[in-house]
Write a structure and sequence with these properties.
about 210 residues, alpha/beta, Rossmann fold, 10 helices, magnesium, hydrolase, magnesium ion binding, serine biosynthesis
């Protein structure tokens, strides 16, 4: 059983898990296309759409936004109740904490600094002359990339898989949730709740500790 008493690794999703909001929805609101983006986001997170296709569709709607929007969005999002306390508690017990996100490094990196996270991986938005082009650059963070990150970071930390925890709310989190020593659906979409080994229905990330011996 996964235990707090030995060093381990927690990997979690960002949007609607580490934070209460969906960053791409916040960007969409700033671009005046919030409702259109939110509808695609909901379908993608419930597994009704291919994630990479849904991402490209939403990012295209952000074309023309100034890059200054990232600081604005960073100021508008909120850490989920218990998130910072959970990270601090795990660090005190010798754990490492990482996030892997279908969102964007431009905002995730600011959250990483705020929360003192050890690892982070997210998508990158292409920029030209200080505005977004409506495209991403580099590999898209898919469910397979999320799973790979869990394995790679565990190996880097010298942590056995039974000492890993994965937490997320969307369909693209399911592979890492199943692979971890302790996989948790956090206030998740119905598809994810039905398939995850463990569930947290309260928006309090400190409840993750309930599953650690």
């Amino acid at each position: 059983m996964t235990t707090l008493k030995q060093p381990g690794l927690l990997v979690m999703d960002v949007d609607s898990t580490l934070i209460n909001e969906e960053v791409i929805d916040e960007l969409g609101t700033a671009a005046g296309v919030g409702q259109r983006i939110a509808e695609v986001t909901a379908k993608a997170m419930n597994g009704e759409l291919d994630f990479a296709q849904a991402l490209a569709e939403r990012v295209a709607l952000l074309k023309g936004l100034p890059v200054s929007i990232f600081d604005q969005v960073h100021q508008s999002v909120h850490f989920t109740n218990g998130a910072l306390e959970l990270i601090q508690t795990l660090h005190e017990h010798g754990w490492k904490v990482g996030v892997v996100s279908g969102g964007f490094h431009e905002v995730v990196d600011l959250l990483v600094a705020d929360a003192h996270l050890d690892f982070a991986l997210a998508n990158r938005l292409e920029q030209e002359h200080g505005v977004l082009t409506g495209r991403t650059t580099g590999p898209v963070v898919t469910k397979q990339i999320k799973l790979n990150s869990l394995h790679e970071w565990a190996q880097e930390c010298g942590v056995p898989m039974q000492q890993t925890v994965a937490v997320g709310d969307g369909a693209n989190d399911l592979p890492m949730i199943h692979a971890a020593g302790c996989g948790i659906a956090f206030c998740a979409k119905p598809t994810v709740r039905a398939q995850a080994p463990h569930r947290i229905e309260e928006r309090n990330l400190m409840r993750v500790l309930d599953f650690l011996d």
